[in-house]
Each structure stands twice: as structure tokens, then as C-alpha cells.
């Protein structure tokens, strides 16, 4: 099973889990990264289990046409994960999230069209794109390893097509904190009604915790 597959946005949280699973499954993985010079963003990838001779990193930017040609050429699958997930938004979500996500996906798909060997494109979206999941502060939670494995399952299963949702529990902040407090009684969780502030942390920083 040593054929080549491409994962876009290799420095990211989901892509890192996916690349770990792909390497363990025997694939040759080509990951795309926006800035080759920012080595700290990808140093965790070189420490993944699985032989690193099956890992390659190639520069590609969502906003540059033809940028993904080199990474995608010769691959049988493309897992398109790269998408802007900004820490804070100063110019509005349309300019900072929507437009680069849509234009970037079109750029990736145009590169896919140039590769006659390509069998399948698996495209990651998010439950945050589905309003129902966020009504009244409720959100869907799922382990990232399950999301990564789902992507591989969708590629390997010839019958898969269309859209799939990967979700485990849907809960509000209070349920989430109660569940965590029950599981980790030694941690100082807040009591009473909970207002959570989410902080964006990069994968390479998470691995140092
Ligand atoms: N985290 C979750 O729980 C989860 C679950 C399911 C689906 N998803 C979806 O999966 C996708 C990735 O999420 P994530 O949590 O892994 O986010 P993340 O850690 O912020 O990763 C985003 C990746 O996209 C890359 N990227 C952003 N803008 C780019 C550009 N212009 N050109 C090339 N690469 C660019 C980033 O590169 P840089 O490092 O250079 O910024 C990074 O590698 C999102 O669509 C998200 O909604 C996330």
C-alpha cells in the first residue's frame, strides 16, 4: 500500500493526526505547508511513528493558483484539510475565512484535475459550518483520531460518496465541564454555570504540554 497520497495543511491539528495514521497504515505521504522556512510548525511531523522516508513536505499556498500541482501530481488521493482557522478576525470572516477557504479549495481541485492517477479527493469541513450544531451554545465533540481515521476510511472504501458527518457527543458547556470534572476529579473545574472562552493553540505547542 505504499502509494502516494497528499495532505494539505500539514502543519495543522487535524492534518497532523491524519498524517500520523496514514504513515502508520503504510502510505507515502506528501504534506503541503505554506511556509517552508517555519520549521517549528512541522517539527512534530518528523517525530511521528512510521518511517519518515515515506514523508515529504512541499510548499503550497491556498491563495496561489497552480500552487498544489507539484504536491498532488502522482498521488492517488488528496485529503484537503488546509483552511484558514484564525486566532482572531480583524477584516471580517468573509475576507479571512470564507474567501480563502473557497478559493483555496477551487485551486486544490484544479490541481487535482491535472493528475490522471488521482482516484479520490476527501475534503474536510467543520460542524461549525452547520448552524444546527451551534444552536444554544451546544457543540459536537469528537476525538481527532476518529476524524483522521474517518478520512482514511472514506478514501479506502470504494462505495463512499457524498457527504459524511463525524460526531460523537453533542453537549453544552455545562455538560462538557461536568463530564471532564467527573473524569478528572483532581483538576480545578469551575462550579455553577460555565462560560467558556476558547483559545487557539498551535499543534506544535500542544505537543510540548
Ligand atoms: N479542529 C477540529 O476539531 C476540526 C474537526 C473537524 C474538521 N475540522 C476542519 O479541518 C480544517 C483544519 O482545522 P484544524 O483544526 O486542523 O486547523 P489548523 O490547525 O489551524 O490548521 C489549518 C491548516 O491550514 C493551513 N492554512 C491556512 N491558510 C492557508 C493558506 N492560505 N495556504 C496554505 N495553507 C493554509 C495552516 O497553515 P499554517 O500553519 O501556515 O497557518 C494549517 O496547516 C478546518 O476546515 C476545520 O474546520 C477541524
Q: Short description, anyone?
A:
The protein has 209 residues and is α/β, with parallel strands linked by helices. Helices cover 31% and strands 14% of the residues.
Kindly describe this structure.
This protein has 209 residues and is an alpha/beta fold. Strands 3-2-1-4-5 form a five-stranded parallel sheet, sandwiched between helices. α3 links the parallel β4 and β5. α1 crosses α4. The longest helix has 21 residues. The two termini are 34 Å apart. The protein binds NADP nicotinamide-adenine-dinucleotide phosphate. NADP nicotinamide-adenine-dinucleotide phosphate binds next to α1 and α3.
Topology:
Blueprint: E1 4-7, H1 13-24, E2 28-33, E3 55-59, H2 69-72, E4 77-80, H3 93-113, E5 120-123, E6 139-141, H4 144-156, E7 169-171, H5 173-183, H6 203-206
Parallel strand pairs: 1-2, 1-4, 2-3, 4-5
Antiparallel strand pairs: 6-7
Helix pairs in contact: 1-4
Bound molecules: NADP nicotinamide-adenine-dinucleotide phosphate.
Residues 9, 11-15, 34-35, 41, 61-63, 81-85, 100, 104, 124, 126, 147, 203 line the site of NADP nicotinamide-adenine-dinucleotide phosphate (NAP).
